[in-house]
Amino acid sequence: MMRRFLLITALLTPVLLASGQDSVWAQDTAEETMASPDLPPPPYEAKLLRLAEIIGSIQYLRSLCDPEGENGWRSSMQALLDSETEGEPDRRAQLTAGYNRGFRAFASVYTDCTASAVVAEERYRYEGATLITEIVARYGN
Which of left, alpha, beta for 37 (phi over 0: left; psi -120 to 50: alpha)? Predict the structure, then answer.
């Protein structure tokens, strides 16, 4: 599972650092293959949940401020879900909810692109990159 996470973080890091957006991701469309055994979550689960919220927040802010930009956020989140939650529908639902929570948090505050929205997006992008670095440094192979 950690090897897959490292692959996904390698894919997500450029996305977090580049511009991008996609439409709101209100529900998870991937089919679940099998019920997960009652496994404990990985030790980096809290950071991963925060990362999902950050990606959702950046998604909204980028689509608000640059609607013609890159469309990689939803696919990056889907890749993260596919690699980290295979056979674990509860974890998948939690990460999807985190993404949606991040998206909706800013949707309730910003309806227009403002200077503060741009600053918030930059700060969230930095926090996401920092989280990825911390997870890989501590839990990577």
Answer: beta
